[in-house]
Amino acid sequence: MAVNKDISAFGIDFRELWVTFAAASLGALSLVFPSGYSIGAFLLLLWSIYMLWERGIPELPKGVWVLLFVMAAYAVFHIADAWFRGEGLRGFDQPSRFIFAIPCLIALFHMQPRWAWVWGGVALGGLSAGIIAYYQRFHEGVGRVHGFMGPEHYGNQSTLLCLLSLVAIFWGSVVARSRLLIIAGVVGFVGGGYGALLSGTRAAWLSALILVPLILLVAIYFRFYKTASALLFSTVMLVFISAGNSEFGVQQRIESSVNEVASYFDGDVRGSAGLRLELWRSAQMLFSERPFIGYGQTAYQERITTLAEEGVINHQVSRFNHIHNDWMNALAKGGILGFLVLLGVYLAPITLATPNVIKPRDIPSGLLAVACLVIVGNFLMYGLMHNALGANNGVITYVFWMVLFVSGAISAFRERADAI
């Protein structure tokens, strides 16, 4: 039943104000509180339930129905897998977030947030990443900053905010034409990058090294020549400064990775790189034993412990509850089907967003498609060396940002001059 309410606040329909605040909170509050990444997602979920109750289900493109199916399939597979293997409710936790994001994706085709404010939230999140990193390093004396989560997840969250702030700069320059948003984007870019560097998260660094040049290339493709050139020069300078500054530990972390890999192939398993290689070898063993159904979480832990006790793999591997690689983790625990549902949640948004990058309907939808690909690309690369979707902060960040940008890229776009 539709409810006709033309309530407004400060000249904004209350529903638009609600979704804008929720979307902006995804970035702005993600690192400043424990579980801060869930605040915006929760508000967005509540908003979507209200919107669907008020307006029903809108007409959706076929590709969106495919994405909805993939999201549901991922959740159902992992929940059913945990249930039938007797792993209890703990196996429902992360997959359920995909179910919660489904009404959000649908409702966002009724109404979009004011994107200038969303990008402002991204920039604020990047700034907070830098401030928290500075405080923990120089006031608390922490070696690898971690915020309210582990250093690996903090590093990836910071990297993601850094990358999205780069897109925010282009939005401020070309769409909103706002110097304030451009400055905010630069601050978020620097702050997010600073937080990522002090976290010491090499997987996140790899993501940034690949995605920043790609974002700049897309900007050149969109003919944002001046902004792209200035950012390219600034990025190159920042990379050289970071690499040469011992405070960031970039050179030391890279050298240790090289040494640990070399030692591994000499038969000495040590350091995080060596243990990852041993974990990946163990995953291959488990997949070869059960290629179709995998082991599940509980049986995986038992089997890996047995292999360690028998001396087949290094004993240190048994203390990890995941493989430090999303793809191998899926193969070892869920078999081929687990691999396919993971592939689906990455491939579906890529197929929706890519056409709007190659042939954008307009500049705003093109930039939102780029942001969607940044989210997917970041998690794809981070997931090569860590369990990106194995923690609440990762899965909530991925799926809610993804549905937000997918809907923005392919829905009818409206941006008003008063959005700043």
Salient structural properties:
1% strand; mainly alpha; disordered C terminus
Structure description:
- With 420 residues, the chain is mainly alpha-helical.
- Helices cover 72% and strands 1% of the residues.
- It contains 15 helices and two strands.
- Strands 1-2 form a two-stranded antiparallel ribbon.
- Helix 8 (202-221) packs antiparallel against helix 14.
- It is globular and about 65 Å long.
- The model is unreliable at 1-9 and 413-420 (pLDDT under 50).
Question: How are the elements arranged and paired?
Answer:
Blueprint lengths: L7 E2 L2 E2 H15 L8 H19 L6 H23 L8 H15 L7 H24 L12 H25 L3 H21 L2 H20 L3 H20 L5 H16 L5 H19 L6 H14 L16 H33 L4 H20 L9 H19 L10
Antiparallel strand pairs: 1-2
Helix pairs in contact: 1-2, 1-5, 2-4, 3-4, 3-13, 4-15, 5-6, 5-7, 6-7, 6-8, 6-14, 8-9, 8-14, 10-11, 11-13, 13-14, 13-15, 14-15
Distance between the termini: 34 Å
Structural class: mainly alpha
State Rg. 22 Å
Helix content: over 70%
Provide a quick synopsis of the model:
This protein has 420 residues and is mainly alpha-helical.
